[in-house]
Amino acid sequence: MIRSILAVFLLMVSTPLWAEGTAGETLVLAKAGVNPANVASIKRGAKFFASNCMVCHTLVYMRYDKLAQEAGITYEKMPLNVKTWPFGVTPPDLSLEASVRGADWIYTYLHSFYQDAARPTGANNLLVANTAMPNIVAPYQGDQMLAEHVATDLFNQVEWYDLVKLTRQGTMSSEEFDATMSDLVNFLAYAAEPYRAEQERIGWWVLGFLAILFVLMYFLKREYWRDVKKHREE
Question: Residue 111's domain spans which residues?
Fold first, then answer.
């Protein structure tokens, strides 16, 4: 009984970790493994974005970012002047997508496409039902279809891979695809907070300064109170 109450409480306070599945299941978001200190991963993700995602999506806040420019993500190459999009849906700018959705959400979304003949694009998504985005990762991941039988736990929770099954292998193995999507999400997290690593580094210096200042203020306080007690005694 206590374990059940605790689990319900954790579910309530941790809502960003889950999303609704296609059939009402609680879809547990996969961990993206974002590491702002891994510059090599961020650069690989930037190159993947430039060659695959920038056909539709923009990153206007990265206009003057050196890392993005080196990867080929420039303001001139972004699809800013496209007026007519398929199905009348304009792809969103992804500059702050990691801050809005969360890195784990994006990572799970990229893994959750499956074939759906009823959709104009031929694909659907577990996290965003009837998404207008085509499955651009299919050449790398392969084709997935909804699983017929889904095993859930006590709280009806499932992982994305419990809801779909791979019917055709893409050009990447599962491990390679996971690593590539991690790189892409790592770059999008960088795009949302390009100075995060520097801010964390400066933060440690600030904490060190405050610690030294605290010690100095402590001894200064002792000196003040020593004078106060001396005047009282006089």
Answer: 15-194
Number of domains in the chain: 2
50-78 burial, b for 16+ CB within 10 Å, e for fewer?
bebbbebbbbeebeebebbeebebbeeeb
Q: Are residues 214 and 133 in the same domain?
A: no
- For the whole model, what pTM was predicted? 0.79
Angle of helix 174-192 relative to helix 103-111, nearest 10 degrees, comes to 150
Q: Stretch 73-80: mean pLDDT, rounded?
A: 95
- Give per-residue pLDDT as tens, 138-197: 999 999 999 887 766 656 788 999 999 999 999 999 999 999 999 999 999 999 999 877
In this structure, the answer to whether residues 134 and 219 fall within a common structural domain is: no
What is the distance between the alpha carbons of residues 91 and 133, in angstroms, rounded to a whole number? 8
Same domain, 42 and 125: yes
